[in-house]
Amino acid sequence: MGEADKIVFAGVEPKLRVMSTRAIAHTRKLLAAGLLFAAVFSAAPLQAQKCTVSPAQVKLGGTLRIICPAEFTSAKLNDRPAKLYPQTDGKRFGLLPISVKDAPGTFSLLISRADDGAPQNLPVVIRKTIFPSQNVKLTPEIEGLHSTPEEMALLTSFREAISETRSWADPLAPPASGCMTSPFGVKRLHNGKPTGEYHGGVDQRTPEGEPIRAVTAGTITFARQFNVLGNAVGIDHGQGLESMYLHMSRLVVAAGAAVQRGTLPSLSFCLFSLFPIHSSPLTGIKTIRTIATAKRRRGGA
């Protein structure tokens, strides 16, 4: 080794002071590789900690699905909160509905942790959605019907009581095979007069007496007759998902009963859903966009 190939390190023992430039270059390569290796493995856990939301672009009346690591417990879009529930795979999952009355635009979905860790912000685009109008002809007898305070209290309790246990699973099953007579989101007119409201569910025509089946597993919260809703059944599917089956010819179940996907809650000729935030049915059903939706504590009638 010549003098030109030597580098002297001050303050090092004489026998360790000399190192070839070739060895230095080799050491630098090893260090770079080691740093890269460490960077890849240290970044992997960070990558795994990210939350996801789908769809990233949602229509008015749609529903957001949020999946996060276990330390994230809640989400909020504008002033609308959603709880994230523990799942069997160790992650957390939540539903957040978008109202027909929400403003289109790009917004930040805030996802918070239970500890002091930093929250995450995910962009969500709410797309402008056009809903048609529909005139419903009502007889004077039907138009004069009103819900009682007891009925309103029961519906409010149903909407606000969110069970922690998830009973439902994708895909959701169509409750009936009849044609759709009124889609979700249409602007409602009664006898030609605007009501200022929109249809919060789906109407489906079926022959009287045809079975109406649960869209997915759950527990029946109520099964009774209402002034305006007629014979109605409400099913809690857990973790923010519920369904209602209305205007039925006969009830064949009782409150507290557990039902499975496709089992018989009632007999009907027509059905639709009503929720505090009217959110279009989840996309688990491909053939019929039907009556399951995320429930929250805001919205119209």
Give your account of this protein's structure.
This protein has 301 residues and is mainly beta. The chain has three domains: 46 residues; 76 residues, Macroglobulin (MG2) domain (Immunoglobulin-like); 162 residues, Glucose Permease (Domain IIA), CATH 2.70.70.10. It is 15% helix and 40% strand. It contains three helices and 22 strands. Strand 6 and strand 7 form a beta hairpin.
Give a quick summary of the entry.
The protein is mostly beta strands and 301 residues long. 15% of the residues lie in helices and 40% in strands. The strands form five sheets. Strands 13, 16, 17, 18, 19, 20, 21 and 22 form an eight-stranded antiparallel beta sheet that branches. It has a five-stranded mixed beta sheet with strand order 4-11-10-6-7, with no helix packed on it.
Task: Give a topology summary.
Blueprint: E1 6-8, E2 18-20, H1 21-48, E3 52-54, E4 57-59, E5 63-68, E6 72-77, E7 80-83, E8 85-86, E9 92-97, E10 105-113, E11 120-127, E12 133-136, H2 140-143, H3 149-160, E13 180-182, E14 187-190, E15 193-198, E16 203-212, E17 218-226, E18 230-238, E19 241-251, E20 258-259, E21 266-271, E22 292-294
Parallel strand pairs: 4-11, 12-14
Antiparallel strand pairs: 1-2, 3-5, 5-9, 6-7, 6-10, 8-9, 10-11, 13-16, 14-15, 16-21, 17-18, 17-20, 18-19, 19-21, 19-22
